[in-house]
Design a protein that fits this description.
InterPro entries: Anti_sigma_zinc_sf (IPR041916), DinB/YfiT-like (IPR034660), Znf_put (IPR027383). With 425 residues, the protein is α+β, with helices and mostly antiparallel strands. Helices cover 44% and strands 11% of the residues. A four-stranded mixed β-sheet has the order 6-5-7-8.
Length: 425
């Protein structure tokens, strides 16, 4: 029988062979903790003092610049490289160039879909098989914006539906706001879209209990407040499906009605809009409130497709002369200035909206029914498209609007204030 390889031996070998008791595998070394001897003293390290970075040669540090730019160095290597960059201008310039290159390799992208993607996909499908009942072109912004908002809401959890949202608008020369929830915003859109539904002969989403508490003219604000007041409990995620079904029904109805429905009047209480403009107004409100919701849940939300944004801006620009006249009757705008020449259209302001969806509009300052004329242009205002929409939505006070201004200051102030007055809850 072979000897135990771990059996201790006395160091003597048998004649003509290896040591009789020599182990084939050396035994483990004893730990210093098992000997009873004191542990060796370590050099003292000052408190709160980081260890010094390793000292590396220049060529080694230079070879590490690429890994440093990609954040792939170890902590010690990164510290050594950064210490070196403070003393070597050549390496510092190379490091800056590499960091810029890394930024191009990894551009920041929004998780939100391109707002034009849906339109392009539908256009491709419709080129292959045209629809038997097409959606009117003037209804496409409303169709697109309700679909985008519905996509945003699709994955919301219960907690997100109750996230606080602050609705903002401009009223009586001051910014006002109303606190609600994500579900409350959808309830607001449901009740105001109901004005369009009723004009089309569809069911009114406003419950009888809400109608019972409504006082005064039936306006978007009064309908919303009545809905919120009459509800025994705050709105929940259950409001999504009625809003979604109503928007789909509106689109189906106007599609079957054809072009003849475009001029159907939709009352808003104090004024009315033709159906083509009312659906554009509802598309604008849907986008604005979708942005409010996205901000509340910290999610990015892109502006509408440029051609839809252009139509929204155009509607606001067409409404400005009437808004100026209404403010003048209330003593909030400067008096009209009549020109000497008979039949003159009055003064005009050139509104230039820059960026995607932009354009130029001549705003009549003295006559709400007249078309602006470049012959009597007294001022020029330039704004970004999204900035102008925020102004018209009451999200930016007129005095804070980032606008390039030239010409008659009173006229400019009247137009910017009138744009803010277009907003409502």
């Amino acid at each position: 029988m072979n000897a135990d390889p771990f059996e201790p031996h006395d160091g003597h070998e048998e004649e003509g062979g290896p040591q009789a008791n020599s182990p084939r595998i050396p035994p483990p070394r004893a730990s210093i903790e098992d000997t009873g001897h004191p542990l060796p003293e370590l050099p003292a390290q000052p408190m709160n003092q980081a260890p010094s970075p390793p000292v590396l040669e220049h060529k080694v540090l230079k070879s590490l610049l690429g890994a440093w730019a990609l954040s792939a160095c170890s902590a010690d290597e990164a510290a050594a490289v950064e210490l070196h960059l403070g003393t070597c201008g050549t390496c510092a310039e190379e490091a800056l160039r590499l960091r810029d290159a890394v930024g191009l390799l990894h551009p920041e992208e929004s998780l939100d879909l391109d707002p034009g993607l849906r339109s392009r996909v539908l256009a491709g499908c419709l080129d292959r098989r045209p629809p038997r009942i097409p959606v009117p072109d003037w209804a496409s912004p409303y169709d697109a914006e309700t679909a985008r908002l519905d996509a945003l809401l699709q994955d919301f959890g219960e907690g997100e539906w109750h996230a606080p949202v602050r609705l903002k608008w401009y009223e009586d020369e001051r910014a006002v706001n109303r606190r609600t929830t994500v579900a409350g915003v959808i309830a607001h859109l449901l009740t105001v879209d109901g004005l369009v539904a009723v004009a089309l002969g569809l069911d009114d989403p406003l419950p009888a209990a809400a109608r019972a508490v409504m006082t005064g003219a039936e306006t978007p604000t009064s309908r919303t407040e009545a809905y919120w007041t009459a509800s025994r409990f705050p709105p929940t995620r259950g409001v999504r499906m009625p809003w979604r079904e109503q928007s789909h029904t509106i689109i189906r109805t106007v599609s079957f009605a054809g072009g003849g429905a475009a001029e159907l009047a939709v009352p808003y209480g104090e004024f009315s809009l033709p159906l083509r403009d009312s659906l554009l107004d509802r598309a604008f409100e849907c986008w604005v409130h979708a942005g409010d919701i996205a901000e509340a849940v910290d999610y990015p939300y892109e502006p509408p497709a440029p051609r839809h944004l252009n139509r929204m801006i155009d509607l606001a620009a067409r409404m400005l002369p009437s808004a100026i006249a209404e403010r003048r009757r209330s003593g909030l705008a400067n008096p009209a200035k009549r020109l000497v020449a008979a039949g003159a259209p009055g003064r005009s302001l050139r509104l230039e909206v820059e960026g995607h969806g932009g354009g130029e509009w001549l705003i009549s300052l003295d006559s709400p029914g007249a078309v602006g004329s470049s012959e009597h242009e007294v001022a020029h205002v330039a704004l970004d498209g999204v900035e102008f929409c925020k102004l018209a939505a009451g999200h930016v006070p007129p005095e804070e609007a980032a606008a390039g201004q030239d010409g008659d200051r009173e006229a400019i102030r009247d137009v910017l204030s009138a744009a803010a007055s277009l907003s409502r809850m």
